[in-house]
Amino acid sequence: MSEHERDELDSALRVLAADASVPPTLSGGQIRRRGEARGRRRRAVAATAAVVVLSAGATVGVPWVMDGHKEIRRPVATDPPSPSLSAPVPASTRARIDVRTKVLTLEPAGEKARSFRLTMRDDVTAGSAKVRYKNPRRKIPALLSVPPDSTYYVEASWVVELSLPSGEVLYLFADDASGSPMNRSVLRVPAADAGWVYDRLNVGDTVTLE
Q1: Are the C-beta atoms of 131 and 93 separated by less than 8 Å?
Q2: How large is the average pLDDT for residues 128-141?
Q3: Residue 120 confidence (pLDDT) above 70
Q4: Which end of the chain is more exposed for a tag (fewer CB within 10 A), N or C?
Q5: Of 138, 95, 151, 143, nearest to 121 (Cα)?
């Protein structure tokens, strides 16, 4: 390095040293006030950021709050389950008809068994019948002996229609139908008990004739 270059370097270093030794142009109070203002700006920015985050959380359905420096997340509310629309299946009733003694015995679920004396013919077909239909009041077909194979209808109450595997249909109903003939399809229950029997036999129940 030449002598001239060394002189220029020394001059530059002396200028820098002089600048560094110059005292600050601001007083201590001004510097403190500027520091406090800078701190307020930082806190305002932090509060604004927290509000933005809270708003975003509410928008997406994740509610939460800030407790000091601790984040508390709340469970997301869920809709209650929809009620079931399916109707309850009624309990089946065990039913049996003794064709020899002409007695109907019912054993409803949760109730005491009861027996009833039926008005019926001696030649009723034995078998396992199903309750196919029921109606509190309807007309049922009744066969006449004269003229042969003719049919008319009688009004009956508490009618329970039974179907045998052979396709034969039996009618269990209250013994209050005037003029109802005695034929093999008619099974008459005492009028005072027919409503109770009707209520406890459900479509699909099995009635055993033995």
Answers
A1: no
A2: 92
A3: yes
A4: N
A5: 143
